[in-house]
Structure to design on (273 residues):
């Protein structure tokens, strides 16, 4: 499926019918790391003609413990995203958590992301839609692919046709997620591009320690399977030193392992399209 982007950066780079890549740190944890990641990933994507959106959460609102890292300050983090956008001429995406955040965040980013736990929040979806930005809605861990038609409708009926859906696994127990790859095709039938969130689908939430675990050794497996079944894009959180990341380090891809993975995925994409 063709992506409904109007961004010049994506239109110019989407020349090889490649999957889109959303990649970056889980959270904007300082001013230096996002630039390092964006520089590395943007070079890889340019080399392989892959449309790239830099990802970084300006604030982490859904945390297990009160003492968990939430951010460096909203405006400071949003300005980091803006500067990454300008420095590397790439679009950027960030999460929003409440309706009153939509307009503020839209001034700094190109794509507003609706977290999985909030994908049914009508006021949030409508507020995001009305900014005119591209809206990426993550499918709730508690929903089927079919149920996401209502989230898509809320955005489109609010006057915004630029919608992405992101699959991130389903929870069937207390501390694990399972990916049902049927959801990718099911959601594509809603006439929107579908992204596979590789790293969040490998989380192990609700740990007794209050710190989410993960299975990063399976990143390649899930990514290869997603491309093989026709996902329009991938979402991968990456960091130079995942063990030192302040959020979701347990399921991140180490930055220096991204390019070899991309090379594999391009070969699979070429074989199946």
């Amino acid at each position: 499926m063709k992506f409904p982007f109007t961004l010049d950066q994506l239109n110019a780079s989407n020349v090889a019918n490649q999957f889109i890549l959303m990649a970056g740190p889980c959270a904007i944890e300082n001013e230096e790391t996002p630039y390092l990641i964006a520089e590395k990933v943007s070079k890889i994507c340019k080399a392989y003609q892959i449309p790239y959106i830099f990802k970084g959460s300006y604030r982490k609102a859904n945390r297990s413990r009160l003492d968990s890292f939430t951010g460096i300050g909203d405006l400071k983090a949003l300005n980091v995203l803006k500067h990454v956008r300008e420095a590397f001429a790439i679009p950027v995406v960030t999460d929003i958590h409440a309706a009153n955040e939509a307009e503020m965040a839209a001034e700094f980013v190109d794509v507003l992301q609706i977290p999985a736990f909030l994908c049914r929040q009508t006021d949030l979806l409508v507020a995001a839609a009305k900014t005119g930005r591209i809206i990426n809605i993550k499918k709730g861990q508690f929903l089927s692919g079919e149920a996401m038609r209502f989230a898509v409708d809320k955005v489109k009926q609010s006057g915004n046709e630029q919608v992405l859906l992101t699959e991130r696994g389903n929870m069937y127990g207390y501390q694990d997620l399972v990916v049902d790859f049927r959801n990718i095709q099911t959601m594509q039938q809603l006439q929107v591009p579908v992204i596979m969130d590789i790293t969040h689908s490998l989380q192990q939430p609700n740990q007794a320690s209050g710190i989410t675990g993960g299975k990063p050794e399976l990143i390649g497996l899930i990514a290869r399977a997603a491309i093989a079944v026709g996902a329009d894009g991938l979402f991968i959180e990456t960091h130079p030193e995942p063990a030192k990341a302040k959020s979701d380090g347990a399921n991140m891809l180490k930055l220096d392992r991204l390019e070899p993975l991309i090379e594999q995925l391009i070969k699979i994409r070429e074989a199946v399209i």
Summary: Residues 136 and 164 are 5 Å apart (CA to CA). The first strand starts at residue 20 and ends at 24. The chain is about 35% helix and 15% strand.
